[in-house]
Design the sequence.
């Protein structure tokens, strides 16, 4: 097989860990699978480290991984790693064609562990040195072009795919709410709780699925506030779920609520829509792209300002009390379900970038 159909992929260690689910990890795994399915030879290197704040030894391990493959073979590097290690990536980019797969720019503040000014400087150097950059949304591409002044011809978009899934069975009153994402401040579960605390007069249960270990103080405050608001028994933090457990959570829901403060795309939105599940989401970053509209121009959900509880509460109250509104959103979600694209299309877009990187 020619080098143009082979690729090294550098990903964070733990990308397959079911206790650390994330959109970035899912994207990396599914992209590699889809590239292999399309005939590519994929050499995956998992690099240990507390990304995006690696230690010196972890940067050295990355440098070794970047220099360990055949000369001329494209290297696709997860942006969580690449953006945090300019000392390793920039020199390597002079020797091999490096393509950065950027899920969330460090400079946009999506990673609370990174120091934003310093992170932005290093990230800009990495992206300027790379042969090409692949973003997961048009919003991210526009942000990079306006903030870092990158050459537009080198920055590409490959939106996440989504797997087909059974449509949910809608409940009569829409009372089963689902929130999927790590329980951290950036994902906005505190905003959701504040909104739900104003809806105690209505019938609802909310299940929050996602890791609870990344910001334990935030999780504890969330639990304390839910008890103080009198909704502690109606808000359930399950911890991470994958596979059949996550599928069951979607199947038992009437509405996905996604209150994230920062999002480059929002894969959970399309995962919900793949099940004909309507969405109420914060209009952050690329969420508008994920939600989309049907071919008839109808949105399958409602967008509200990020970080604001009152508009979120109003949208949820309407959902819970207005059967006609629920019917309209459910019909739009069913139509949008049939218009979503899979991972083969995502892989095809990335493959064209990789082929161009070695042309």
Sequence:
């Amino acid at each position: 097989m020619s080098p143009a159909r082979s690729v090294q992929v550098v990903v964070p260690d733990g990308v397959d860990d079911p206790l650390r689910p994330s959109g970035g990890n899912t994207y990396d795994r599914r992209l590699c699978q889809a590239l292999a399915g399309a005939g590519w030879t994929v050499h995956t290197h998992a690099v240990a480290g507390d990304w995006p704040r690696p230690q010196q030894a972890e940067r050295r391990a990355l440098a070794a991984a970047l220099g360990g493959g055949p000369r001329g073979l494209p290297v696709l590097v997860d942006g969580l790693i690449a953006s945090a290690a300019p000392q390793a990536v920039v020199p390597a980019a002079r020797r091999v064609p490096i393509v950065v797969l950027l899920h969330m720019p460090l400079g946009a503040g999506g990673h609370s562990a990174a120091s934003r000014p310093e992170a932005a400087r290093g990230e800009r150097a990495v992206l300027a040195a790379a042969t090409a950059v692949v973003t997961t949304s048009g919003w991210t591409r526009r942000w990079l072009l306006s903030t870092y002044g990158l050459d537009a011809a080198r920055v590409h978009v490959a939106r996440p795919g989504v797997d087909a899934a059974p449509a949910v069975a809608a409940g009569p009153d829409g009372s089963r709410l689902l929130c999927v994402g790590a329980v951290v401040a950036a994902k906005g579960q505190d905003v959701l709780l504040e909104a739900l605390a104003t809806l105690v007069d209505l019938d609802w249960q909310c299940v929050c699925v996602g890791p609870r270990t990344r910001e334990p103080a935030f999780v504890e405050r969330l639990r304390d506030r839910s008890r103080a608001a009198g909704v502690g028994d109606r808000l359930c933090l399950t911890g991470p779920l994958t596979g059949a457990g996550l599928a069951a959570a979607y199947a038992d829901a009437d509405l996905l609520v996604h209150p994230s403060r920062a999002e480059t795309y929002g894969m959970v939105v399309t995962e919900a829509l793949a099940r004909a599940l309507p969405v109420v989401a914060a209009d952050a970053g690329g969420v508008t792209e994920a939600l989309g509209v049907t071919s008839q121009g109808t949105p399958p959900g409602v967008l509200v300002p990020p970080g604001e509880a009152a508009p979120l509460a109003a949208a949820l109250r309407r959902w819970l009390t207005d059967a006609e509104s629920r019917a309209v959103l459910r019909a739009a979600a069913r139509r949008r379900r049939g218009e979503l694209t899979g991972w083969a299309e995502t892989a095809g877009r990335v493959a064209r970038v990789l082929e161009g990187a070695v042309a």
Remarks:
- The chain has a mean pLDDT of 93.
